[in-house]
Structure formats: structure tokens, C-alpha cells
Amino acid sequence: MAKRVIVTGGAGFIGSHVADALVARGHEVAVLDALNTGERGNVPTKATFYQADITDPAAVRRVFAEVRPHWVDHHAAQISVPESTKDPVADAQANVVGSLAVLEAARETGVEHFVFASTGGALYGDPEKMPSDEETPIAPLAPYGAAKAAVEVYLGMYARTWGMRTLALRYANVYGPRQSPHGEAGVVAIFAARMLSGANSTIFGDGEQQRDFVYVDDVALANVLAFERGLTGSYNVGTGVAASVNEVTRLLVRHAGFGGQVLHAAERPGEVRRIALDASRLRRAVGWEPSVSLDEGLRRTVAFFREKARAGPRSPHA
Ligand SMILES: NC(=O)c1ccc[n+]([C@@H]2O[C@H](COP(=O)([O-])OP(=O)(O)OC[C@H]3O[C@@H](n4cnc5c(N)ncnc54)[C@H](O)[C@@H]3O)[C@@H](O)[C@H]2O)c1
């Protein structure tokens, strides 16, 4: 049965792919986004768009009262880990208090199911066991991860006290088309865009830090399956495989045909050294498996940025 869904952050990278996937399954999608890093052109043409800031509870409440959603997929956030270290208070304002405003609006309008974009990459710190499953102790190294952990505690409370179905999807490093190359996060988008323009790229640290890179279409599918199967609790979304930044850079150099230089700069504080996520709990629950290999995902991402550069900044929804 078709549902009304609010996707916060649906003008951004992951949220817009989730919105696309929900529209494709016949659901009625409304996007709530302040457009601070997202772009209006990322919102599916079939979705309704509301420009609102999650740090403004009254504005969020107005959108919810109008849409009266059955489901909420909460992706709007301050997404930079280094920014969160520089200004933990601003990070918490968006990522904790803003999320609470979305949860409250959801409770007031009787939302059935609330899915939250959490993090695996920044939640477990530098864990001993690799790949890390959901039983790994929560030990974030930066305020960004601490804020995500705080929201997960709220999700549990809303489930227990208000009977809302709540779910945290703990993403690994998500990459793919539409990721912003202008932010500080998202090594793939930043390097792909720079390499295509012929500019040198800079790796922070020795490049041997390892991440679990998961393609955005696989992440969008995890969201759709979670809603359709009524999933609650906390689940990792990752490939289980750790790839080094140097390895990803080598693949990008090949796909972009880059002949310039890759430079190194000092490592940044709060960065995790090595992480890969065990998503077997999600596989057992809904049959989810990552289907796009790193090489193929990077090929598609470079192709997207190449096309975007060719078409200019006002390229249509792709
Ligand atoms: N990209 C990753 O690897 C990754 C990993 C783990 C978790 N996440 C989470 O996934 C979600 C989406 O991240 P993304 O990579 O697509 O980033 P993004 O910046 O592309 O998307 C975030 C969207 O939220 C909007 N937004 C930001 N602050 C807002 C506010 N105060 N009010 C309303 N809208 C606001 C932005 O305009 C943007 O459209 C975030 O919650 C992020 O923390 C991302």
C-alpha cells in the first residue's frame, strides 16, 4: 500500500536517492530540506518540496501537519566530522536538537515508522573486532558520532514510551552520484571532481586509513526494505570490506584518467584508522546484500561527475 513519506535531507546526496527509491515503489514523497548543502535539482520531480530547517521546530511541525506522513526517513544533518570537532555545539544543535524536533513532529502526527541515518563509521571508534557488528561498544572519537549515538538513545525512548517503530541504519562510507564535492566529507566525490578538472588531490595522513565504502543505491535499497518490512532497532549498512584511501585513489586515478599529483597532508584529529561494518544482521532480517562492487561504483561515480562537468552546474535531476 502506498504511504506518505517525509524524507528530511532529501535534497542531499543519500536522501535524494532514498526519495527516488521510494517514489519508484509508488510511495508519495515529501522532501523537507533547508538547502544548506543540498540542491533543489536533486529532489525527484514527483516529490513535493518544503524548504524548512530542522533547527526550527515550528517550521518542522507545520510541514508535518500539512503532509501527515505515515513514514519518516530522517537524513537532514550537519555531516562534517571535522566541523563537529571544531564546533560541537553547532553540530549538536542540528544533529541532536534538530533530530529531536523531527521526532517530536513525527510523534504529534502519529507517524508509524521512523528511520534515522546513523553512522557505523563514526560510532564504534577504532574497534578491535573487524568487521564490526552491532554489538561493538559505542565509542565515538568525534562529536558527530556522539550526536548520532544520542539520537539512537532517543529512538529507543520513542519506541518504548510512544510505541513508534524506530530504526537506526548505521551507514559505512557512502559514495556515489550527487555526493557534494564541496564539503569536507566524501573523499570519493572530492577526488573524482578534482581529478576530472585536472586539479591535484590531497590525502590527509598516509592514506593507509581504511574505510568500508558502500554504494548509494545499495543504501537507498536498505531504507526501502526497512520500511516495507517494518524493521526496528539498529542495523549496520556496509560491505564488510575495508579499503584504504590509497586504494580508492588508485582506482579513481584510473577511471578519471588523471595524470596529476596526489599530495599528502597531516592527519586530522578525530579520524578513525580502520573500520569495516558487518551487515549480516540486516541480511538475515530483510535479505539485503551490497550489489555494487567498489570498482563498478567508482566507475559510475566518475561517469556522473564527468557528465555533470560537461552539462554545467544546472544539470537536471539525474
Ligand atoms: N555520506 C556518508 O558516508 C554518511 C555516512 C553515515 C551517515 N550519513 C548520514 O546520512 C545523512 C545524509 O548525508 P549525505 O552524505 O547525504 O549529506 P548531504 O549534505 O548531501 O545531505 C544532507 C542534507 O540535509 C540538509 N540539511 C542539513 N542541515 C539541515 C537543517 N538544519 N535543516 C534541514 N535540512 C538540512 C542539507 O541541505 C542536505 O540536503 C546524514 O544524516 C549523515 O549524517 C552519511
Q: How many strands in all?
A: 13
Portion of residues in helices?
40-55%
The neighbouring-strand order within the major sheet is: 3-2-1-4-5-6-11
As residue ranges, the low-confidence spans are: none
What is the H/E order? EHEEHEHHEHEEHEEEHEEHEHH
Percent of residues in β-strands: 15-25%
Q: What is the first-to-last residue Cα distance? A: 27 Å
The mean pLDDT is: 95
CATH superfamily: NAD(P)-binding Rossmann-like Domain
Biggest sheet, open or closed, and with what strands and sense? Answer: 7 strands, parallel
Per CATH, the class reads Alpha Beta
Broad shape: globular
Number of domains: 1
- CA-atom Rg in angstroms: 19 Å
The CATH topology name reads Rossmann fold
Number of helices: 10
CATH hierarchy: architecture? 3-Layer(aba) Sandwich
Could you give a short description of this structure?
Helices cover 41% and strands 18% of the residues. The model has no long low-confidence stretch (mean pLDDT 95).
What does this structure look like?
This protein is of the alpha/beta class. The protein has 10 helices and 13 strands. It has a single domain (4-311), classed as Rossmann fold (3-Layer(aba) Sandwich). Helix 1 packs across helix 7. The longest helix is centred in the first third of the chain and has 21 residues, at 88-108. 48% of the residues are buried. The model has no long low-confidence stretch (mean pLDDT 95). The structure holds nicotinamide-adenine-dinucleotide. Residues 9, 11-15, 33-38, 53-55, 75-79, 94, 98, 117, 119, 121, 171, 173-174, 180 line the site of nicotinamide-adenine-dinucleotide.
